[in-house]
């Protein structure tokens, strides 16, 4: 009998505040959708970092004959074969180095032509202007500073360059977008909480006579509060379900059927990341409104 009464009170409350309940569902769905998307974006950035950092190299560029006129550390002319051999031997002895590949000026020019194709820039450079280099693959890409400090001042070395510098701005942009999504999510969450509290207040005010009678006949506070808490929890859970639909739909449409077909050089997150996020979204959608309603009712159900 008590369960039937609680369920009937929940139905009455949802019907009386249908508009505000719908607003709660929408705001919870949007805020938790952004929350889930921000978690997935964080995973995507981590996946991309692991994928690209594992492929980037540290490049040790050698001085060539054209650098002798610049007045820099290459003022003594092109690097000698002995200098290259010494550096190669030292690199092979370092435990952090996985392998070393030599790239000649002609090979560098070939890569340059592949990058710029038939653009006007491609004709501005000749093979003898591009330096020879060692492409150093590290076991741990974060140890780049070890190579830089050891070889950047060596005779015959023009520059030590980490290819991570090229892709780091992309990761910074993605991290910035992730922070922006979290800020918007936080604002939407505040709006959702305010709507939940106001919905509970209105519902409690409209049923103040019934709750007063229940208090007078000896009903416990928890029994009186239960219909209101469950109303908020149901609205929040519905919003969380819609948020899960948005997350799954975004993964399917935006990533699988669009970005993955357009950008082949990026390893995108899989469904396992999405599945890991969905239970957290559902749990927050269920508990957050229930707790908000519980604390709001502590004041507004005193009779």
TrEMBL record:
GO terms for cellular component: plasma membrane. The chain crosses the membrane at residues 21-41, 179-200, 221-254, 274-297. InterPro entries: ABC3_permease_C, FtsX, FtsX_actino, FtsX_ECD. It holds the Pfam family FtsX. Its main location: membrane. GO terms for biological process: cell division. The keyword Cell membrane applies. Residues 56-160 form the FtsX extracellular domain. Gene3D superfamilies: 3.30.70.3040. The keyword ATP-binding does not apply. It is a multi-pass membrane protein. It is found in: Cell membrane. Keywords: Cell cycle, Cell division, Cell membrane, Membrane, Transmembrane, Transmembrane helix. Residues 183-299 form the ABC3 transporter permease C-terminal domain. Part of the ABC transporter FtsEX involved in cellular division. Forms a membrane-associated complex with FtsE. Belongs to the ABC-4 integral membrane protein family. FtsX subfamily. This is Cell division protein FtsX. It comes from Streptomyces paromomycinus.
